[in-house]
Design brief:
Length: about 190
Amino acid sequence: MQRRRILQGAAVTAAAALLPASVRAVAAPTAGTDCPGAQWHPASTANYTPSKRPSSHPVDLVVIHVAQQTFTQTIGIFQNPAKQVSSHYVVRSGDGFVAQCVREQDIAWHAGNWDHNTRSIGIEHEGWVDQPSYFTHTMYARSARLTADICDRYGLPKDRAHIIGHHEVPGSDHTDPGPHWDWVRFIRLVNLV
């Protein structure tokens, strides 16, 4: 067993060395993530509420966001205790890399509505609502896989009633994911997984 762990560690280290420097700079161990393939980039503990979901609060929504920032800037905001904001996941545009910032059992502060925060998983996407070039096929595909995994684990239908945009949260003054987010394509991809 010890030998296997050493070999696995060596394989991970070797694979990481092959990644471009821009990706290695944000890479972190996967321990503690809820979704396969996500890597742990913890938000400041000042930016979310510890909980024991789904036993404390049932999860019945996935909220889709566009960060209005780059991937790295978004992670930095979530790690800054003065910002008072977080999301469970962030998806990078170019390669679909997924960072998990808050455990799903905890309540991320992403929706701007406490009720929706308690009952949802938030997924931020790198980019800007008025720059559709950020919405790459790779981003859509990886986000759809993540969303499908969340829906499967919580028994949620993979439809627009349970996968909503930030702008659809009651009381929200946000417009994301914006008019360029292709909902038909995204929901189709979620259902193909």
